[in-house]
Amino acid sequence: MAAAEGAGAAAAGGAVVPEFDDLKPCIKAIKDANPEMGVAKVHAAVKEQHPEWQVSQDRCKKILADMVVVVDGKVKGKGLVKKSDGAVSAKELAKKKTEAALAKKKEEAKAKKAGTQVAGGPVGGGVTTFRPGGDISH
């Protein structure tokens, strides 16, 4: 049991936090060999190549975000870290919906004040005209 504890302590004590200058070329080599790899898989490959290194996934992500990736001779942008590949956070989506709803209400209010109908108004082709003096014609 003492031998097992000693081996575990040696493994934990042998963990090395690599310098940026050591980590970046390793990540670049992995990403160049497999450009479709995401952050988690690149991190796993770094840990596999250098089991003695203590590297977090966030640190790999930061380095990948700063790298320019070339796939088939074409620049694919910085790092290919999927920050927002069409996906929008729930907060941003709610904000966009709110802004759109407010814009629509403002447009309807202006149209009502001007006496015209807004696109997307009543269904059925019936046009309601607001006339000065309060007379309403259908």
Detail the topology: elements first, then pairings.
Blueprint: H1 2-13, H2 20-33, H3 39-49, H4 57-66, E1 68-71, E2 74-78, H5 90-114, E3 129-130, E4 136-137
Antiparallel strand pairs: 1-2, 3-4
Key features of this structure:
138 residues, mainly alpha, two-stranded antiparallel sheet, two-stranded antiparallel ribbon, 4 strands, rod-shaped, disordered N terminus
Explain how this protein is built.
There is one protein chain. The chain is mainly α and 138 residues long. 52% of the residues lie in helices and 9% in strands. It has helices at residues 2-13, 20-33, 39-49, 57-66, 90-114; strands spanning 68-71, 74-78, 129-130, 136-137. The strands form two sheets. Strands 1-2 form a two-stranded antiparallel sheet. Helix 2 packs across helix 3 (39-49) and helix 3 crosses helix 4. The longest helix has 25 residues, at 90-114. The protein is rod-shaped.
Amount of beta strand? 5-15%
As an assembly, this protein is single chain
Lateral strand order in the biggest sheet:
1-2
Write down how many β-strands occur, each being a DSSP E stretch of 2 or more residues. Answer: 4
The amount of helix comes to 40-55%
The main sheet comes to:
2 strands, antiparallel
Assign an overall shape: rod-shaped
Rounded mean pLDDT score: 73
The separation of the N and C termini measures 92 Å
**Unreliable segments of 5+ consecutive residues:** 1-11, 79-86
Backbone CA Rg: 30 Å
Class computed from helices, strands and strand pairing: mainly alpha
SSE series = HHHHEEHEE
